[in-house]
Amino acid sequence: MPLEYVGGIKVAGMMFRPGAFRAIWGKDDGPLIDRIKPTEFIGVPDAELTGLYDADKDPLDWLIAMEDWLRHYIARHGIQPPERVSQKFEAAAFADPNQSINDFAEDNGVTPRTLQRIIKRDFGMTPKQVMRRARTLDLAARLCGVADEEEEEIYLRFFDQSHQIREFTTFFSMTPKQFVSERQGLLTLSLEIRQARRLEVLHRLEPDSIRPWMREPFVPVVSQTAS
């Protein structure tokens, strides 16, 4: 989605695991994919969240205020946890987006049809699409220089270079080479947040640890693909 901004910018957000919107607000994830919706969409007045911001507030205090708001909201409404299978599938996509969907279903005691229904509801896409998207996002993070330093195998998740370019273009509407030269700062930030979350879910990074890509001066990774 096109986005332009000028000057400095402050962004704070909350990440929700698959199915959380449905558990908390009764909304499936499908209508939210590649969309920006006002908080009124979930029945929360915009000012209730934007009012937590104070220009003089320390960024950490701002984030804590948001977290406290969400904790109190969940407690006040007696909300139950999201679907467990969806949480496991998210972790599986982080760990190995090339794994068999049928094997995952068997390992977790559900039929492929049931898995298809749950994932479509909680991710807004099919299990296969979730895996394809995870594989491409990992590659994008690598191209931005915000991936785990030990993850050269990210490139090996594709059959060949043409497959890699085709998949990347499907999700980003540009080739990997174009992505490296034209990417925006906010997109890099989003990919970095996702990658940090991925390493935390896989127990390869503590929440307060220095991320692998921050140990050396930031240098974008040159694309290993052709347009």
From TrEMBL:
Cited InterPro entries: HTH_AraC
GO molecular function per UniProt: DNA-binding transcription factor activity; sequence-specific DNA binding
Coiled coil: none
Pfam families per UniProt: HTH_18
Residues in HTH araC/xylS-type domain copies: 83-182
Protein name per UniProt: Helix-turn-helix domain-containing protein
Organism this protein belongs to: Pontixanthobacter luteolus
